[in-house]
């Protein structure tokens, strides 16, 4: 991994995901699509980029507590989770990642003011122990914790994208 830092820090138009992918794949930012600019089609560009670079997408691990917080209907029905898709050490340990590292999302420290508002996510790189090994926003170099980390656990990680070698 090389540390690439984002150039655009802007709610809804930042390039943190692009910087994370450049870091993981050891490429220049210009070699990575600006995924957010594809709007609702960002995932197809993400998937294509991963495949074109010798990797495959094997799903996403989700933070169960965060998902429950966001589901107001959970008061009337029990939300069921597939055990293999929940963030847990046992689930992440089975994955290779990119040299043992993973693209994950946290809540944006800059743009998350309240649990009651729509959340803005931020891309980071983690290891198999959920340590955030690189945050592409240079403003967060000495960050102590991410929003809701005390409540949702896993250092505030809300999801982990499983990218493994083909």
Provide a descriptive summary of the structure in words.
This protein has 166 residues and is an alpha+beta fold. The protein has a domain at 55-165. The protein has helices at 16-25, 42-52, 64-69, 89-93, 149-152, and strands at 55-62, 102-107, 121-126, 132-134, 157-165. It has a five-stranded antiparallel β-sheet. β3 (121-126) and β4 (132-134) form a beta hairpin. The chain is globular.
Brief overview, please?
With 166 residues, the protein is α+β, with helices and mostly antiparallel strands. Helix content is 22%, strand content 19%. The longest helix is centred in the first third of the chain and has 11 residues, at 42-52.
Provide the descriptors you would attach to this structure in a database record.
19% strand, five-stranded antiparallel sheet, 166 residues, 5 helices, 5 strands
First and last CA, distance: 19 Å
Q: What is the typical, i.e. mean, pLDDT?
A: 90
Helical content band: 10-25%
Question: How many helical stretches?
Answer: 5
Order of helices and strands: HHEHHEEEHE
Instruction: Count every beta strand, where a strand is a DSSP E run of 2 or more residues.
Output: 5
Strand order, biggest sheet? 1-5-2-3-4
């Amino acid at each position: 991994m090389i540390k690439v830092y984002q150039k655009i820090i802007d709610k809804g138009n930042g390039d943190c995901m692009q910087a994370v992918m450049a870091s993981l794949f050891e490429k220049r930012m210009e070699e990575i699509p600006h995924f957010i600019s594809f709007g609702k089609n960002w995932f197809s560009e993400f998937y294509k980029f991963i495949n074109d670079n010798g990797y495959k997408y094997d799903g996403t691990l989700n933070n169960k507590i965060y998902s429950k917080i966001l589901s107001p209907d959970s008061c009337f029905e029990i939300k069921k989770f597939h055990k293999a898709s929940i963030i847990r050490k046992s689930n992440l340990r089975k994955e290779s990642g990119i040299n043992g590292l993973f693209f994950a999302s946290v809540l944006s420290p800059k743009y998350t003011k309240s649990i009651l508002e729509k959340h803005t996510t931020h891309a980071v790189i983690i290891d198999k122990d959920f340590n955030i090994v690189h945050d592409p926003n240079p403003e967060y170099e000495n960050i102590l914790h991410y929003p809701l980390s005390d409540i949702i656990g896993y250092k505030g990680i809300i999801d982990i994208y499983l990218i493994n070698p083909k």
